[in-house]
TrEMBL record:
Molecular function per GO: phosphorelay response regulator activity; transcription cis-regulatory region binding
Signal peptide range: none
Name listed for the protein in its UniProt record: Two-component system response regulator
Response regulatory domain residues: 2-116
Ranges where the OmpR/PhoB-type domain occurs: 124-220
Length: 222
């Protein structure tokens, strides 16, 4: 799952980026509204975390442009303005959630999970593919009831595939969902992670199938 942080406070942005990467998200950071608008045009994100007080293009203007473009990416506003009027303006402007500074990273992660579930219209935060279970509330994987040990990159690949279960995902799309702009990704990296995941899913009925020329498909092999 890939997140865009739009925050002009470099210290806060870097702290957020580090915390979310440790939580197994891929993260890009924009320090002003203009850069964020460009990044949104060339990459796909699962969530945008948006500060309102931004240079070049302010947060509310950026949010308005995002919605006018037809982009439905969930947006969580971060701001020091915790007033009722401020919250109402942000939500009416197209935001999906609103979090006042200061905040705990655990609360932000919970809100990220919630807006993603709502965006995918999933009432139950759990996905089953054969005996592979993804618990949306904790973002953990289980096979036959046992936790599945994954590296952060493996987790990111499998999470994207499980969110798109039943749909073929191209290698380029999968790579974009896993790596940020600042990551140095080898062109064969996705193939390597898929190979490792197949090894770890050998005893599971869940299977990552390769559709030649199209991409990868997570399915129940039984």
């Amino acid at each position: 799952m890939k997140i865009l942080i739009v925050e002009d406070n470099k210290e806060l942005a870097d702290w957020l980026g580090k915390a979310l990467r440790q939580a197994q998200y891929a993260v890009d950071i924009a320090f002003d509204g203009e850069d964020a608008e460009l990044m949104l045009k060339v990459a796909s994100y699962s969530v945008v975390i948006l500060d309102l007080s931004l240079p070049k293009i302010d947060g509310m203007t950026l949010l308005k442009r995002i919605r006018q473009s037809g982009e439905k990416v969930p947006v969580i506003i971060l701001t020091a303005n915790a007033s009722l009027d401020g919250r109402v303006a942000g939500l009416d402007g197209g935001a999906d959630d609103y979090l006042a500074k200061p905040f705990e990273i655990a609360e932000l992660e919970a809100r990220i999970r919630a807006v993603v579930r709502r965006g995918q219209d999933r009432a139950a935060p759990e996905i089953m593919v054969g005996d592979l279970r993804f618990a949306g509330s904790t973002r953990q994987f289980f096979v036959g009831g046992e936790p599945l040990a994954l590296t952060p990159r493996e987790h990111a690949v499998l999470e994207y595939l499980v969110m798109k279960v039943g749909t073929t995902v191209s290698k380029a799309t999968l790579s974009e969902s896993v790596f940020g702009f600042d990551d140095e990704a080898d062109p064969t990296a996705i193939e390597i992670y898929v190979h490792r995941l197949r090894k770890k899913l050998e005893k599971s009925s869940a299977q990552i199938a390769t559709l030649r020329g199209l991409g990868y498909l997570l399915r129940d092999a039984q």
